[in-house]
Specification:
The complex is a heterodimer.
Chain A: E1 2-5, E2 10-13, H1 14-31, H2 36-46, H3 50-75, H4 80-107, H5 110-142, H6 155-159, E3 164-166, E4 171-173, H7 176-192, H8 197-208, H9 212-236, H10 243-264, H11 269-292, E5 299-303
Antiparallel strand pairs in A: 1-2, 3-4
Helix pairs in contact in A: 1-2, 1-10, 2-3, 3-9, 3-10, 4-7, 4-9, 5-11, 7-8, 7-9, 8-9
Chain B: H1 2-19, E1 25-30, E2 34-37, E3 44-53, E4 65-71, E5 74-85, E6 88-101, E7 104-108, H2 112-115, H3 118-123, H4 141-157, E8 161-165, E9 169-171, E10 175-182, E11 189-199, E12 202-215, H5 217-228, H6 230-254
Parallel strand pairs in B: 2-12, 7-8
Antiparallel strand pairs in B: 1-3, 3-10, 4-7, 4-11, 5-6, 9-10, 11-12
Helix pairs in contact in B: 5-6
Classes of the chains: A mainly alpha, B alpha+beta.
Chain lengths: ~300, ~260
């Protein structure tokens, strides 16, 4: 079933895009991540212009995180104060991302930067996750207990001036730390069309030292609002949001996410984590190969 | 840019019409004056056809040839070439062209090399390697040629540059028809369908028809909305995402 995308200016097979959204949604439901890190590269691989892919993938992440946020709000596991600070940082970061995007585009290096960022980010986080989950698995098999990490924030965080109380996170730290963290993920969201949950969750755990219960809900809260802001910024500046493409992706991903959530309850979380780590590393490896191997297209055309 | 290229084609045609009454004339037409891009648009086939009118109905001894060219609006483009730097492929060299046609399709009754010489082909831009791209950057000619070859190769593979030699049918020496495919990736704008009558290596008549390619209905509305009401457009995208995500969650809870 071919459908013409009015902004991307090409026709795509609607079922392929819905399927793609479905697979990403399934993974996002299973692992509790937005899944933007998969959508953007897959769309580019399918032939959608990179800018349109990044701009439309952001709205898919919004859709995928809504029901998660609702659930976490009902359970009371969202730290609104922390989420608010992170979101404020994220919106500022997205604004910086717009400027960076334009600068890199005029230099002609946007594609390389996007690919490099993917390799570094996914490779780093994937390795960390793989290491941790393998350790947990070994511990499970041998019956040994790993010592629980002491919850504490990074010394750099403690050095920042001004302190606020974040009750639900169990923290008394400077709001500048989450603000900066939010900014970093905001830039990534704008450039890559990813939610940034990948960076956010480990950073909240290990850099800020938040309680585990409120981490996922709060990061989803930030992702929801920052992807909304990014969609708006793309709509106003790059004008590259394709509503038809977004709709197709959303149809797939919101249904996939629900199926994924149910599936995740039947599988042990340790196995889930190692599976996610494998997928993340696979995407990173594919991107790295793309950088190192002779690309299919030596030339790119930019219409001005 | 566009007007100039149209003139360069029309001028010889006008001269021919005014100057010599005993030269043949072309009466061309196209199957569609407007091509509308809708949700189901996967490309279109355009039929370019017409008649050759010889003065007094006298047909020449050597059969004449027909070349048809369908051209899209000119674009100013920046091309970049990837190169391996420190182990990774990054954009290195670049070239800028002021008038690269966004679409170019050509059909001829025989292979173009057998109809006209290189110079004539270059004058009338017959063939993708004969396009006048007006480079505006300081590259040397070898580099420009490399970039032009890259452009042609890239656009040929996505169906934006098409060459179909030997596909123009001429019936009884007076009626011709050719079919040219319009790819789904075409840009909207004013297209021109040019027809050339070639006799003994010389273009003896030329004629031009305009074709408009535009988005229609929903697609046109979306493109306009994204451009002019970007805030409302963005808001719609956000509401759509939130609404669908929320609805899916609400439905899943009932099941």
């Amino acid at each position: 079933m071919d459908l013409y995308l009015p902004i991307a200016n090409l026709s795509v097979n609607a079922l392929v895009i819905i399927g793609l959204g479905g697979v990403v949604g399934l993974l996002s439901g299973m692992f509790g991540v937005g899944g933007g890190f998969l959508t953007t590269p897959l769309l580019i691989f399918y032939g959608i212009p990179p800018t349109v892919a990044a701009a439309s993938a952001a709205s898919q992440v919004t859709g995928a995180s809504v029901s998660g946020v609702v659930t976490h709000m009902e359970r009371g596991t969202v730290d609104f104060r922390m989420g608010g600070v992170l979101t404020a940082g994220g919106v500022v970061g997205a604004g910086i991302g717009v400027l960076l995007f334009r600068l890199l585009q005029s230099l002609g290096q946007i594609d390389t930067v996007i690919a490099l960022l993917y390799v570094l980010m996914l490779g780093g986080i994937g390795t960390l996750m793989a290491k941790e989950s393998i350790q947990t698995l070994i511990a499970l098999k041998t019956g040994k207990r790993i010592q629980a990490r002491k919850r504490r924030h990074h010394p750099l965080v403690a050095a920042l001036p001004m302190r606020w109380r974040f009750y639900r996170s169990g923290l008394y730290i400077s709001p500048l730390a989450p603000l900066l963290l939010g900014m970093g993920t905001g830039i990534l969201t704008m450039l890559l069309g990813v939610g940034g949950g990948f960076i956010l969750v480990p950073a909240m755990l290990y850099l800020l030292g938040m309680t585990t219960q409120s981490v996922v809900g709060t990061s989803l809260f930030q992702i929801l609002f920052v992807t909304m802001a990014t969609t708006m910024m793309h709509a106003m500046t790059t004008k590259a949001v394709d509503l038809v493409l977004a709709l197709l992706l959303l149809i797939g991903s919101v249904t996939g996410a629900q199926v994924g959530t149910r599936l995740s309850m039947t599988v042990r979380p340790e196995y889930l984590r190692i599976l996610l780590a494998a997928i993340v590393l696979l995407v990173a490896a594919r991107m790295a190969l793309g950088l190192g191997w002779r690309p299919d297209e030596i030339y790119t055309i930019e219409v001005r | 840019m566009k007007r100039a290229s149209a003139l360069s084609v029309l001028a010889p045609a006008l001269l021919l019409l005014l100057g010599a009454a005993d030269e043949p004339e072309l009466v061309p037409d196209v199957s569609q004056r407007t091509v509308e891009i809708q949700y189901s648009f996967t490309g279109a086939d355009l039929l370019l056809f017409g008649a050759i009118v010889y003065p007094g109905g006298r047909r020449p001894k050597n059969p004449a040839d027909i070349v048809v060219v369908l051209k899209g609006p000119d674009q100013s483009i920046m091309m970049r070439e990837k190169e391996k730097v420190a182990g990774i492929w990054v954009n290195a060299d670049r070239a800028r062209f002021r008038s690269a046609p966004s679409f170019y399709a050509m059909a001829s009754s025989r292979p173009i090399g057998k109809i006209v010489d290189d110079r004539t082909a270059a004058i009338y831009e017959l063939g993708v390697d004969k396009l006048q791209l007006s480079p505006s950057s300081l590259n040397d000619s070898a580099e420009l040629e490399r970039f032009q070859a890259g452009l042609v190769d890239l656009r040929r593979r996505v169906g934006l540059y098409v060459e179909k030699p030997g596909t123009v049918e001429i019936t009884d020496g007076v009626l011709y028809r050719a079919r040219l495919p319009l790819s789904a990736r075409v840009t909207v704008g004013d297209y021109t369908a040019e027809t050339f009558l070639v006799q003994d290596g010389r273009v003896v008549a030329a004629a031009i028809r305009d074709i408009t390619v535009r988005k229609s209905g929903f697609e046109q509305f979306m493109a306009l909305a994204a451009e002019h009401w970007s805030f409302l457009y963005g808001l719609t995208a956000i509401l759509l995402a939130v609404g669908m995500g929320w609805a899916a969650g609400a439905i899943a809870r009932r099941i």
